[in-house]
Each structure stands twice: as C-alpha cells, then as structure tokens.
C-alpha cells in the first residue's frame, strides 16, 4: 500500500528562463505534490539560481532511484547541481565537545524534544567530562585525547569512529581543537562550528577578551561551515546581544553562551532540514 | 521595440495538486520569466494556497489585457482569486494626518529616497499644521476640518478628494479620527492605520498611558488594515521596544514614536509592493 | 579574623532631600563600602524614591543585627521601608512544574552553572514526569496530585512541604494549576509565574491559540509576581519573538518556549539578587 | 528670586572607600538635591570609579563658580577628575555632512522635536547639497570644498568657523573626509563619527561591500569618538539589523541607513546629556 512521504529537492544552476516551469512540471507529472517552494537568484541576467522544494510523494523511498534517473534528464540542459532527499532518512550526526557544556546540552535537549531532524549517533571529546551527560541521553561517548604528540593518532581515531558510524554531519559544539585538513575535505560543508564572536570581528583566540579590550557595545556568535581557513568558512547564522560597560570578561562569556547555543542550534537545525546551500563562500538559507 | 517590464501575479485558492506547475507553465509559455516566487499553504490537505510571483515580460503594459484573458482560463479550474499588476504603474496614495508629524515625515522622507513604490498624491488633515511640510515636498495639501457637527460634510469632502485624485491607498499616519464605514467599504484592505500598541494589548485611546499603568516592560506599535471593528483589522506588521521603570508616559510616547514610524513604513512599503494578501482576519506577508 | 562579605540594602520611601547623603554616610561610618548603587525616583517632588546598594562589609553576617538596629534610626525620619540582606545566605527556592520541561530544565541548568543565587530545595509537581530530572540533579522531588476533589488536601500538602523546607521563593515553571489565595498571601511577592504571552494581551487559557487566531506578528512571554488576580500581578520581565504567517499553533508553542524559558530565568535571577522592588502593581528592576 | 536649576556632576577617580558618602554629603550641605545618580567601578579593589549625578539647585548658574571652588576641596584627596555642568547652558554643535542626508535629517528632526539638548549652530559640508535643508531649519550652512590640493585651506576654514561659532561638539554625519589631527586634538572626545559597520568588523572603506563579500547575516553601525586611529576611537553605541542572502549591496546600504541614523542619534543624545565618560579607549555610558 502506498504511503505519502516527504522529499526535498535542492537545485542550483545558472539562472535562465523556464527553470521553475520545467521543475514543477517534472514533479507534477511524476506524482509529486509541491508542499513548499522557495527560490533565489543572485541576478535574473547572468546570475545564479537556487531552489528548494518540499514535496510529498507516495512511496518516495522506494521510487527514489527512479525519480533521480528521470530528473537527471530535466536537470541536464540547465547544468543543474541538484539532490533529492527523502526526509524519512535522518542524517547521522556526531558532536565534538571539550569542556563547555552549554552548546552540547542545548543540542541534546532540542533533539530529545524532536526539534532536530537527526540521529545523534555519538559524542566525541578530548576530555572525559561529558560521558555521563551523553550516555544518560542514550548517546555513545568516545573519549579521544588530543595532545601535541598524538594529533595523528587522534585524527585516525576520529576518522574510523566517523566512518564506522556512517556519520553525515559533524557539529563542533565549542570543540577547542583545530580540525585537520583531511577531515575537512572528507566532510565538505558538513562540519559546522560555533565561533564566539560576530565574525569577521575577533577572529582567533579569546574573542571575549578581545571584545572587552575593544570596548564594543554588542557581542555575538557565528555558526559557519568549517573550511581550510580558520574562522573564514561560509556563515550560516549569526546573532548578538547588547552589553554595557558594567560587563567584565566573565560576564561577556556568560551572556555569550546564551547566544552561542541558540545560534548553533539554529544553524544545525537548518542544515539538517536541507535549508542551506553553499555557494562560493556564502550560504543561501531558505526559511 | 520591446522593453522588459516587471509584473506581479498574486494567487489565492484552495490548495490542491498541480497549482505551481500550471501557473509556472502558463507564464513560461506566455513569454514571462519568473524573477522571484513565494508561496504559502495553510495546509496541503484542505488548506488554502497563496502565491506571489514577480516576473519580467517584454511590453507587459501593452499585453496586460491579453495576458489577463489568457490567465483566466488557467485560474478557473482552481477557483483562483488572482491579480496581475504591472509595476510600472505606481499606486496613488493619500496620507491622512492630524498633529503628530513623525509618521508623515518618515513616509515623505522614504518616498523622496525612492523607497516607496507610490505616487503620494496628497495629504489630508483636520488641522492646518502640515501644509508647509507637505507642500515643500511638492505634495498637495487639503485641510478638511472635522467637528462633531460637520462629520457628514467632512466625509463627503474626503470622498470627493479621494475620487478626484484617483486614490488607490489611504494611509492613516496618526490620524486621530474615526474613519466612517462608507470609506472603509469603498477602500477595502486599502486603508492602513498605525496603532500605538502591540495589539491586541491596549485597544482604544491612550495606549501609552494604559501601558504605563499596567507596568509593562515592552511597548510596541501595530500597522493594520482598517475594518469596521476599531483596532481589530488584519495586522500587517508589529514591532516593540524595551522600556524600564524609569520611563514616564512622556518617555513612552517619545520612544514609541520611533517604533510607530518604522512599523508604518514597513507595512506601507510591503502593501505597495503587493507583498500582502489578506485572508480572513489575517495577512500573508511575502518578503 | 575578619572576612569581607557582601550585603544588599533596599530602600523605598517618599522622595525628599538628603536621602542619598544620609544612607551613604551611614554605610561609610559603619564600615561598609559601597560597591554598586542604583536609585530611582518616580518624581523628585512628591514622588517615591527607591534605592538598591551593594556593599562590602567585614563580618557582615555576625554584625547584621547590630547594623539593622543602627539603620532603623537613619531610616525612621524618612519613613523608609528597607531591608539588609547578607548575600552569603542564599534564598531557598521551590519550583512547581507540570508536564512541560523547558522552564524547569533551564532553571536547573542555570543553577548548576552557578548563575542562580539560590538553593533549589525541591521540585513539586502534580505529575510524576520530572522525578528523574529533579533527582538526577540532586533535588528532592514531591509528587502532589491535584484533582477537583483534592484541592484542599493538595494545598495543605504544599503548605507543609514549603514550611518544612523553609522555602523563601516559589517559581511556577509552567505549573498549570491555579494557586490558592492562602499560598499567595503567605508568599507575597515571592511567587513568580511565567505566562506565555506578552501580557496584557491574551490573558487566560491557550494564549498561543489566541495569538494564532488574531494573526499577530510577534509572540511573547511575561514573568510576573502572582497576586489574587489571574495574570495581573506586577510584571518583572517580558520579551518577544517575531513570527510569520507560516507558523501554525504548534510552531508558535515551539518558538514561544525559547522566550518563556529565558524570560523566566531572567526574572528569577533578578529576584534572587534582590534587584526587584514591587511598588503598587509595578516593579522597579535595578540592573 | 531663586529658581531651581538642574546640574550634572561627573566624577572619575581611583576607587576607594567613602567616595559616595563624601560627594553626596557635599551636595546635600551645599543646597543641591540629588535627582538621579549612577555609578560604576571597574573593580572595588584597585579599580577605577565613575559617577554621574543629576541634581537640582536654586540659582545654579549664578552659584556655579562658588560650587566648583568648594567641590575642588572635596575632590582633591580622592584625585578626582570632575566637572559640574549647568544644563541650562546648551552645548553648541556643528554637523559635518557630505552627500548622504539620512543622518543629518534625523539629527535636525530630533532637534526640532526637542530631543537633543543642544544648539545646532551650523552645518558644514564639502558639497552644496544640503544648504536648503539646513537653512530651511534655520541653521546656517557653510560650504567648504575639500580637494587634494586645498586640504590645508579647508582645515583652516573649519577651524575658524568652529572657533567663531564657539562650537563645543562636532558631529560627523556621514562626512566622507578624513579629519585632520589638529582638529582631533582641539576637540578631544568631542567629535563623534558614525561608521557603517559593527566595528571592529569592516574597518575602512566600503564596509557594506565588505559585508556582502564576506556573507555575514547581520550588518551594523557604530558611533564612536574620533581619535588619531581611523575607526578605532572609543565606541559609544552600536546596533545591528539582520539580513539574508536576498540582499545585494544596495539593499545593505538601504537597511544600513536605518541603523546608522538611530545609532548616531543615540550617541549624540547621550553625549549631549553628559552621560558618556571616556576612560582609555572605552566609554562608560550612564542611562
């Protein structure tokens, strides 16, 4: 018996006439009903076009290979980059953390509430602090210590843990270690970091101390994809909070946490719901 | 010689399968290129569907009657309510004001900057205060006094001024008089008011005094279409600002003005750009 | 040997000349050093004056009775209401909850981080859901069922639990039951509730449904002291979040939770730090 | 006959015990009544102390020299930097502008509403665009062209205009020229600039283009005192607005204007009300 399932089609291609008509006609004539659609063009003339369509389809999982084969023909004349995802398959997520719990707590709590479309498959940390927090939520915990001399081994351990657990997405929930290039290349646009400043202000270490020293009146946080340049990957989400001359560095850290956890949560949620398309060093985020 | 012009198609109908495909195919095969599209469904099953499409078309103004006749056939099986607007024709706007200038100033200033897609055709006031302000901006000013005994005459004057000037939209920029029912019925969903509270809190007179008396920690403003029930029309936009125990009623009024003028500006801007669809007592606002 | 301790002096009296001089001279000549001071007057002429002073004092706990006796003489000519609190004594807090965990979780988590100046002495609920949550944080849990027929017994149970545990402050963390008048009178301005709307909008039940039906563009939450009138006690804190036509009632509830938990947290934090003075139906909140 | 006048006392000194008592006793015994008082200490031990007191005094203007002489004795043992200002004397302000009118318009409009405690004595511009705008508000306009070869003459002209008009404060309302060092030194902490980014992000030219290229999700504005380092003076106020992938550089500029004008207005207002104390490269801003 048929059952209605939900799918998401992402499309990215040079802008030209007739894209929406071609795609919507394809979906309609292949039994899919458009539930929501959003699009963006950097410029109708010579620009780039992006589209995200939520659709319902009877027996999507079963028919997916067929649908993909058929769509390839529609996509080809437009030089589309595209993907079709059945939402019944949840992305598998690994969370990296160190010693600050607020981002990890927030993600676990949102996940328990059903607000994150994911399997949180495991937590990895270079410390043992969060074993209980993870395991009491039913999430396997891996302690992978990282020292100057053991970076290669740690990376190897990370790789095998992620591979064995078929991880799709890695969340750095205030993980205070540099991610090696091999990992970044293996998980292109699938590693999300939270930086504790409104980038590009206060790149690098100790951004709250930097903010204090500069005497700013707002502090912020930035969730971004990790690429080879530290703190320079495509930004997914940012937010800020107002501060006053009364706040010392400890106060900044305390208030900053509230921004960090909500900004990371939003970025992760949108990523998992396939709302984010990376284009060059920027993101299109469909709401 | 052909020239590319921009049009906006608004559609509202019961949700069902195939709407997007039908509309986008219609536009494509009639020489229109979709520049931006947004849609909303209250529920894919038994719900109501809304769509706003910006498109470009060679010689739209000339071909509009033809296009409308053709679209009527596409629209009919879906029981669509719809409109096609050529953006080269700017709506004609009348602003009503009394003695507070901040909303009027903001609208005129935005209009001079080219941020409002409108002809501001005239200012009407029950006082003479703003004659110079209006006229120095090149906007005709009409002084129509309103007293208890002259309401009928005032309404008649309003009607004839609006008709003679072919007004499409009326903005009440802190106009402190009740709008008579005939006017509301003549300009259905075309009269926008700014109320100085976050409705439905503090309906009626003196909302800042009410807010002060209640001891709230936020004040706000609400732009809404005017219907027969005072302060109960469909809300287009709202915003707020934080206040503290230090603010007296005068402070509330002063800070409130900043919210009022920006909220009214946004609502007017979106209305003029055909971003707002009224459905029952609510609005869909496409960004 | 002496040790420096921190104290908080709250003062409230009719405004007149010389209050600040009298109080600051008293503190100085009694060995207290003003660390922070804030004040407010509703009106220098005929108004009411409020002051909060943080001070440091060697051996405050030991000298408190002496200091209080001495200050009574300074206070008397000004008709002051006043209190001196040694911050080394933490208020004892009881949290009431029902079935929604976000506010309870937030308070426990903040408390574990050291961000709430309190002993969370116990959690009371009319359901058994949160036993594990409370107990795993080391907080005793009391299940007091409430049915139509057992209200009197439940109130008696509440009273004896609160008295036996020497509770100072009661937090209603989405506790979905009416608080009986005796409890309100016993804990005057010491019971804090979170209401899931920006009061005075949407008083009463189901505020998110009410907000959806009205078509507002912002939703909010309000933390207030509980008095005999439902949802009409003095407001401590409010905040809002923007919504769009895309949000159904479930979405409103989900986004509302984020506001509820942060608004309640702020109000509780400020209350516990003696930053809130109730005056009539309003609050002065010193930052 | 005596009349009550308002004064503002600003104090800045190393923190130690007894400051508040000494100052409040001085005021009380010299016939001044404290209307509002605010203070801040970077650290009670070895820190720096700041205080702002609003007081009322009969015949303040007449008695000011006497009061200052007397306060010098109170201030000396504490090594205070201090000033007493009679608010009946309004600061004289010069506004510099170039070709963008939003900041200039906002300041003039606020001033006409009585929201700026100042005499706007003149507008200076390197272009002639705003002559009518200034003069129709009754403000003298000076056109001082600036070219590569005439910088020295322009600076000389600026100096003599400012001196002749006894200017206290200079506002750079999007004045697109570098301010020469002599002017900065002559008007220490009395020149306020608006930079169109949330500093320290996007220092230098074309910040909106920089923001677009980096793909940020928020843009902002910063009002700061001008010192010798470009865009690095003490920050008075900052604010931001959210943006999306849909905004091109023109959109960023348009939305940015709304932030710029409100941020500059706030900073100017606070400066004129003597709410801002500069300490090193930071500001204390008393609300």
Automatic annotation (TrEMBL), chains A, B, C, D:
Free-text function comment from the UniProt entry: Catalyzes the hydrolysis of 10-formyltetrahydrofolate (formyl-FH4) to formate and tetrahydrofolate (FH4).
Full protein name: Formyltetrahydrofolate deformylase
Record-annotated ACT domain positions: 8-89
Catalysed transformations (reactions): (6R)-10-formyltetrahydrofolate + H2O = (6S)-5,6,7,8-tetrahydrofolate + formate + H(+)
Domain of life: Bacteria
Gene (name only): purU
Transmembrane segments: none
HAMAP family in the record: PurU (MF_01927)
Annotated PROSITE patterns: ACT
Keywords for this protein: Hydrolase, One-carbon metabolism, Purine biosynthesis
Cited InterPro entries: ACT-like_dom_sf (IPR045865), ACT_dom (IPR002912), Formyl-FH4-Hydrolase_C (IPR041729), Formyl_transf_N (IPR002376), Formyl_transf_N_sf (IPR036477), PurU (IPR004810), PurU_ACT (IPR044074)
Enzyme Commission numbers on file: 3.5.1.10
Family of this protein: Belongs to the PurU family.
Catalytic machinery residues: 231
């Amino acid at each position: 018996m048929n059952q209605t399932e939900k799918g998401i089609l992402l499309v990215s291609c040079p802008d030209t006439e007739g894209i929406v008509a071609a795609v919507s006609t394809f979906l309609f004539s292949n039994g899919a009903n458009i539930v929501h659609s959003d699009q963006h063009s950097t410029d109708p003339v010579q620009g780039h076009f992006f589209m995200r369509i939520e659709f319902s389809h009877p027996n999507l999982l079963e028919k997916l290979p067929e649908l993909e084969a058929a769509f390839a023909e529609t996509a080809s004349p437009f030089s589309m980059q595209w993907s079709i995802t059945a939402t019944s398959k949840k992305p598998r997520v690994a969370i990296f953390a160190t010693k600050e719990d607020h981002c990890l707590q927030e993600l676990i709590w949102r996940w328990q509430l059903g607000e994150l479309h994911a399997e949180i498959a495991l937590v990895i940390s270079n410390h043992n602090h969060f074993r209980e927090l993870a395991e009491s939520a039913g999430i396997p915990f891996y302690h992978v210590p990282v020292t100057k001399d053991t970076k290669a081994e740690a990376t190897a351990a990370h790789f095998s843990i992620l591979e064995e657990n078929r991880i799709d997405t890695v969340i750095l929930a205030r993980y205070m270690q540099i991610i090696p290039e091999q990992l970044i290349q293996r998980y292109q646009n699938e590693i999300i970091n939270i930086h504790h400043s409104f980038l590009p202000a206060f790149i690098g270490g100790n951004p709250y101390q930097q903010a204090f020293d500069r005497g700013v009146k707002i502090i912020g946080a930035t969730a971004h994809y990790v690429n080879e340049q530290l703190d320079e990957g495509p930004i997914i989400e940012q937010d800020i909070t107002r501060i006053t001359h009364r706040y010392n560095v400890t106060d900044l850290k305390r208030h900053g946490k509230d921004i960090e956890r909500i900004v990371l949560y939003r970025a992760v949620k949108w990523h998992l719901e396939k709302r984010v398309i990376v284009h060059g060093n920027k993101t299109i985020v469909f709401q």
